């Protein structure tokens, strides 16, 4: 993440903290340090998970903008993207980067990461706002997702947007299994899963953003 981006996020967090709680910001600055520390730990643990968070944050920011969300909500969704997979800190890299199919036990372990993300973020009251997408980005519109099996609008807009951004990055990235899909192939898959896995409105906005070249595959970490 480059310095101007980092500064703007810190300013946003401090300002929203000040306005929402009117509490001294010293402790909050400590919490921001903690989250940078956690992101750096994720970077060291598994660089591809960190890179994935950067991509998802960038895609989610564009999708949220396209959907007409307020600028402060767009900024929050960007941050939610950055931390949405922080729980992967607790998943062994032998599982995260395993070439080939995961065993049921390994997949069970992977499925714990939204709960772990929630636990990590909930340690910091200031970061509570960023928990929604972390715990809900593997929920599905039809209720067949995890960890809670909630559906439709029970899933926060943050969770629904990050779910699509996350899937788009997985589809278009080089992974231990399978080759990356092209934009066109990814669009077809998103449309195929519209109304089952994904919120139809989020898919429509994402497809528009891809077709109008607002979304560029594999953006550098800002
Ligand atoms: Fe995830």
Tell me what you see in this structure.
The chain has 222 residues and is mainly α. The protein has one domain (3-211): Hypothetical protein af1432 (Orthogonal Bundle). 62% of the residues lie in helices and 0% in strands. The chain contains eleven helices and no strands. The chain has helices spanning 3-21, 26-45, 47-66, 71-83, 93-96, 104-110, 113-122, 131-136, 157-172, 183-192, 200-211. It is globular and about 40 Å long. The termini are close together. The relative contact order is 0.13. The model is unreliable at 17-24 (pLDDT under 50). It binds fe (ii) ion. Residues 85, 113, 137-138, 166 line the site of fe (ii) ion.
Q: Would you spell out the secondary-structure blueprint of this structure?
A:
Layout: H1 3-21, H2 26-45, H3 47-66, H4 71-83, H5 93-96, H6 104-110, H7 113-122, H8 131-136, H9 157-172, H10 183-192, H11 200-211
Bound molecules: fe (ii) ion.
């Amino acid at each position: 993440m480059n310095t101007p981006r980092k500064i703007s996020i810190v300013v946003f967090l401090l300002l929203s903290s000040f306005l929402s709680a009117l509490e001294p910001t010293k402790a909050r600055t400590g919490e921001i340090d903690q989250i940078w520390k956690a992101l750096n730990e994720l970077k060291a643990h598994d660089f591809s998970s960190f890179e994935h968070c950067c991509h998802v944050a960038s895609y989610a920011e564009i999708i949220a903008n396209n959907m007409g969300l307020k600028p402060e909500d767009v900024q929050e969704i960007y941050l939610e993207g950055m931390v949405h997979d922080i729980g992967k800190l607790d998943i062994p890299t032998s599982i995260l980067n395993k070439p080939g199919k995961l065993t049921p036990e390994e997949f069970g372990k992977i499925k714990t990461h939204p709960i772990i993300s929630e636990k990590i973020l909930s340690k910091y009251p200031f970061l509570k706002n960023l928990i929604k997408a972390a715990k809900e980005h593997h929920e599905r519109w039809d209720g067949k997702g995890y960890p809670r099996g909630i559906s439709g609008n029970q899933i926060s807009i943050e969770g629904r947007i990050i779910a699509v951004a996350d899937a788009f990055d997985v589809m278009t990235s080089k992974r231990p299994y399978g080759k990356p899909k092209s934009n066109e192939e990814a669009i077809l898959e998103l449309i195929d899963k519209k109304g089952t896995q994904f919120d139809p409105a989020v898919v429509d906005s994402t497809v528009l953003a891809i077709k109008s070249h607002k979304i560029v595959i594999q953006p550098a970490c800002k």
